[in-house]
């Protein structure tokens, strides 16, 4: 920015820099938690949502987590593989789990 940069622009830069630092700290903290627990943040969030709504379908879980169904499906598959959740096929619709 030139000599005519406003104080507002400097404030915006300072806020953006602070947000970047916060994001960096959160990422580092998340990586450390993943190492200690052995689960990703997405897996932990899915488990938290499932504990609040046992028996939720993949689509319901996707809606609750504001995540695409295909991404939630991958997370659930990994939790099933680790025997942390049980996948039950719907009696009414075999495509639904």
Overview of the molecule:
The structure is a single chain. This protein has 2 domains: 8-38; 40-97, Winged helix-like DNA-binding domain superfamily/Winged helix DNA-binding domain (Arc Repressor Mutant, subunit A). It contains 4 helices and no strands. The protein is mostly helical. The chain is elongated, with a radius of gyration of 20 Å. The longest helix has 31 residues, at 7-37.
- Radius of gyration from the alpha-carbon trace, in angstroms: 20 Å
Within CATH, the superfamily of the largest domain carries the name: Winged helix-like DNA-binding domain superfamily/Winged helix DNA-binding domain
Provide the succession of SSEs.
HHHH
Name of the CATH first level of the largest domain = Mainly Alpha
Number of helices: 4
